[in-house]
Specification:
alpha/beta, UDP N-Acetylglucosamine Acyltransferase, domain 1, 36 strands, 12% helix
Length: 349
Amino acid sequence: MSSPVFFRPAAAPTLAEVVLWTGATAPEGADLAVVITGVAPLDLAGPGQLTFLDNPRYAAALAETRAAACLVPARHADAVPAGTVALVAREPYRAVAAVAGRIYPDALRPGSLFGTVGVSPSSTVHPEARLEAGVTVDPGAVIGPRAEIGSGTVIGPHAVIGPDVRIGRNCSVGSNATVVHALVGDRVILHAGVRIGQDGFGFAMGPGGHLKVPQIGRVVLQDDVEVGANTAIDRGSNRDTVVGEGTKIDNLVQIGHNVSIGRHCVIVSQTGISGSTTLGDYVVTAGQAGLAGHLTIGTGAQVGAKSGVMNDIPAGQRWFGIPAQAARDEFRLQATLRRLARRAGPAAD
């Protein structure tokens, strides 16, 4: 079986170009005409390739690298082996991302999975839909009446765009995704299997049965939002569900109706956010965090993995635990429990 290359380099920059793109500092006398053919990790990088060190845990691998050049923080520059050019960067991870994006632009957002140019004849586009020039629609996709889609956007195979949906320019909608009752900004990425705009989970509970509450709001995804595979974002019940610009949402996340998420938040896999909760800007929720409804999570707050949040979190604080509490209180609780366990001695058989 042959070994395919899924991402072919679109550029082969010189070290001089890498320095220009990243703002890194090269050592005096370095040959900046060296051509970079790709990006690889420390242990796999070879001649012609660029690597980086950002986490000190991998410092031992730095001494063994055979890369042409390595982006490193200043404190590790002297550890770069002979034959590898040390490019000192304040943020090596961001620097290598900038270079990799230029070498492998196709990896930045999903493109047509069928090599389609324009609208595939085997897609179904309603005659009342409006597509700007330059929209790509893969086979099997369905676009409903009065939907509007901006130029440069790619609609993947078997994706469904509902009636009256608005999708901006240079977006990607992955295969089998559904987008209904939604307004989507520019440069938004929706990965495969994403569900946007379906009913929120709303019922008027009662002993005689649960009466369904009509969900008449929308989902608003602002510019530069990215939503991971198989994530679901429910539309609002009586107001919009909103995700602010630049927010990045991982795979397998559930966001309930009326939720408002600020700008540049990071929502990690398997997080669940219940209805009508508000997150400020730059909030981070780690994996499997669960947030109850009608809460306010302040700007810059961080929620630890597997945490159960049942109270508001002030801006800038770190909370974790079940139930979640401020980090200092949770650390104190865990230390106390360990001391009590030691005093009690080993458990009886």
